[in-house]
Amino acid sequence: MSEQWLQQIKWNSDGLVPAIAQDHLTGKVLMVAWMNQEALALTVQENRAIYWSRSRQKLWRKGEESGHVQQLHDIRLDCDDDVILLSVEQLGGIACHTGREHCFFKTLKEGEWVAVEPVLKDPNTIYDK
């Protein structure tokens, strides 16, 4: 496959593009991460979500430590060519490193962010700490 499709993407000044992971059945937004060209190409090649970790400055295969792999079902590019939408199956039902189903578990209530989604699994049992 030609890599011309990668050239159509408007990468930011750091060579990254935001990627939204969405549950392929429910449409629920699971998380947002970043991808560089290599991560995106590998995501398509391996049929699983692979991101660029800005904090660790390396490729991050979602689930490589936790086992919570995101199997790719579909990939889309937005109208401005600067955001990726991944339709995924979240294996294990946990996408967030806090042990929750998704990363958007806080809601604004009376000027404060309040966690409103349950922890499904203690993160200390997911990751070696």
From TrEMBL:
Mg(2+) binds at D78, D80, D82. This is Phosphoribosyl-AMP cyclohydrolase. One of its GO terms (cellular component) is cytoplasm. Pfam families: PRA-CH. The gene is hisI. Pathway: Amino-acid biosynthesis; L-histidine biosynthesis; L-histidine from 5-phospho-alpha-D-ribose 1-diphosphate: step 2/9; Amino-acid biosynthesis; L-histidine biosynthesis; L-histidine from 5-phospho-alpha-D-ribose 1-diphosphate: step 3/9. InterPro entries: PRA-CH (IPR026660), PRib_AMP_CycHydrolase_dom (IPR002496), PRib_AMP_CycHydrolase_sf (IPR038019). In the N-terminal section; belongs to the PRA-CH family. In the C-terminal section; belongs to the PRA-PH family. One of its GO terms (biological process) is L-histidine biosynthetic process.
